[in-house]
Design goal:
Length: 247
Amino acid sequence: MNKKVGVLLVHGMGTLADDFAHDMVYELRERISGRGLNRDEIAWQGVYWAPLLSAREHQIWVDLAANNDLNWAKLRKFFLNAFGTMSSYHSSGNRPDSLYYRIHGVVHQGLQQLRTKLGDQDKPLIIVAHSVGSVFMSNYIWDRQKGYDQERYGSTPFERMETVTGLVTLGSNIPLFCVDKENLSCIEFPPPTLTEPLRKKAKWLNLYDSDDVLGWPLKPLSPSYSATVSEDIEVSVGNILTSWNPA
């Protein structure tokens, strides 16, 4: 089957397995078929970056908790994962072995694998990124649009983010990294290289839950975000025990 669109799925913070995208892809394929569309025309690819940090985070937890009675263990582990990832990613500098570049390297590998599934052609790309994954992808797209590290991250239009037609950010943490910046600029979306028919269809949808303290609307960030993000969509996630609170 000739694939027409590629979808890149990028997970957020938390402890996840390498098949993190399986259930989501299954559900989306069912809904696509339910709309009378051909789900086999879509190629899917997950970006699994968690192993870059999981071993170190686990060791830190073991070292700190071994001889100390720490309450709220599950919550502590979550914050260790969340803020450990955020601080390490943004404080690692420009070293070639930094977490910033290692995560971007995993993103690039995912893009290469997805392009192979698309017959090595530069077809439309949709990115679905959760939580801190949206920060990674925003930075990744920014760097490609600025022409940074072309030798490292490829030279095809698909790899240069020139065919990005859709962005879906879920529980995005982008505002947490912007408190020291004024007149904030965001990525160019849709990219100027996108064909006119695709530009008319391109959307950036940002979904957030008002009870999620780590997920935020994006349009109010700046005039640039207001003009670029198509829509902030408030949703309610969780079950009867969790949907009304930060859990």
